[in-house]
Amino acid sequence: MLWLPAQMISAETVVIVNPQIKIDNISSKSLGRIYAMQVKHWADGQPIKVFTYSTQKETYRDFVISEIKMQPHQLERLWNRLIFTGTGRAPVVVGNEKEMLEKIRTTPGAIGYLETTENFSGVKSLEVEK
Amino acid sequence: MKTIIQKMALPLLLAISANAYAMEINESVQLHGFVSQGYIYSPDNVFAGDNAKDGSFDFREFGLNASWDATPKLRFAGQVLSRTMDEAADGSLKVDFLLADYMAYSDDTTTFGVRVGRIKNALGLYNSTRDIPSSRPGITVPNAIYFDSFRDAVLATDGLNLYGSHIADMGAFGFNAYVGSRELEGPTMENYLFGQDVEGEVKDVDLKMLQLTFKPESEHDFNFGLSVLQVNAKLSGAQSITEAGTKYGMDLMASKPFYYQNYLTGAELDSLFALVSVQYGYQDWLFTAEYLNIFSEVSYEVLGNKVTNKPVSEAFSLQAEWFTTPQLHTLIRYEELYLVNTDKDGSTSARPNDTYHGYGKGLTLGAKWLIDESWTVRGEMSVNEGTAWVPVYEGIGDVELKQHWNTYGLQLTYQF
To answer: Which terminus of chain B is more solvent-facing, meaning fewer CB atoms within 10 Å of its CB: N or C?
Structure first.
């Protein structure tokens, strides 16, 4: 059973990582740099695998605005720049929360997010310092 | 062959990408692409050819790329690109970039690596993505900064790119250094230098570039950039002094008017670009300002006599983007370009059919509607004075250009 701070339940969006990741909290800034694909490794040297949803989904928009504190269009422009200049890659897009949970649980170094208050297991939630 | 590829491109793209933003063959390979169809109405001046004077659909783009993570440190990526712009670009497929990327070092604050191959030049905010509809602020990039004459010469480097970034307490620093060359096709550079095609060609361009970026650690969303680029090009295969002298003698006897372009025996261009970029995001607004100087040394050899000019070109662009709703984005931009900054009215840069070639001023209004993840429609209008950034094509030297000209554009884009 995972322990969730009260504020996260009310905020609904929960940042989740593969259980092997050793940190318990992360700043909005760091989260932003990870989702902008600028920071590519965790502090212990493990490569970061970034997962997200379709940019049309509310879950995505809520996450970017409330957790990363960025505007979605800024992030999408950065991703497009990486993809179409060959200098990097965009996050892997998953179809739904079930798929997200599965990917985060089974992929070493994975990070993603859920918009749920329901119980989930096999992944670790991170507290976001805003 | 070309038309077959073009006809097949759209259905092919639609077929392979019906349900996905990116196509993933497996976790280590990603495919992306785009197609755009434009409509340009340019009632006052030619725009990449005659057709746009009555409105034309001869404006298309197509791109397809793949990236492969061979190991966590080694990545390969490549893209083919086709651009159709009436007479200015013929839609032929080109290798836009093709590179191997070795990330030599990366931890949670610092990254350092090297790329080898054909690499897009991160000159200013938009050079590397000027052909990518989703990464441009409007149908075009800011014309005053990214004007057409230098497009081909500075688009990419065949060579080496060192890159790195570091996150410190005061903010995030980044750098890109490039060294290499670029091979040109067509007479764009000849047109820029001489106002017409000439005997011989400007084929190989040497490039050296450094880009520095800084994003301060602050409540305010600022981004700063500085790009310095050195471009060196020579006219090769020019006529000999004897040939030029003979031609001169014959033209003199036939009482033809003297145009130095007809008797060129050599030419060399040395340009240093210095481009400052500032971006500021505030809520639903994104403000962008760029300022460019090009310090050039242009040497001509006419009938063996060397003449050297040292013009300084100057340009700025001010742009506000308002992300009105998640689906609707609007844009306003004002920009100016002076090919010779001591000649702001353009009088000494005037050409026989192109009196106002020396400068450009433009106001652009645009809107973008994001229909869904893949489809986008754009509309845009520009009100321009001066013709410094009218797109160059073979034969533009024969067309009389007007000082005041407007353009109206629509563009539909599909991306996956």
So the answer is: N
For B4-20, what is each residue's pLDDT tens digit? 445 444 444 444 444 34
Nearest residue to A41 via CA among B113, B272, B199, B119 = B113
Q: Which residues of chain B have pLDDT under 50?
A: 1-5, 7-21
Q: What is the DSSP string of A59-117?
A: HHHHIIIIII-S-HHHHHHHHHHHHHHTS--PPEE-SSHHHHHHHHHHSTTEEEEEE--
| Option in B97, B106, B281 nearest A41 (CB) | B106
Residue of A nearest to B31 (CA): A83
- Give me the mean pLDDT over the A90-112 stretch: 94
For residue B26, the model assigns a pLDDT of 67
Q: Which residues of B touch A74 (CB under 8 A)?
A: 281, 286
Q: Which of B105, B135, B176 is the best substitution to test chain A (most A C-beta atoms within 10 A)?
A: B135
Subunit contact A73:B129, Cβ cutoff 8 A: no
Query: From CA A104, how far away is CA A17, in angstroms rounded?
Result: 6
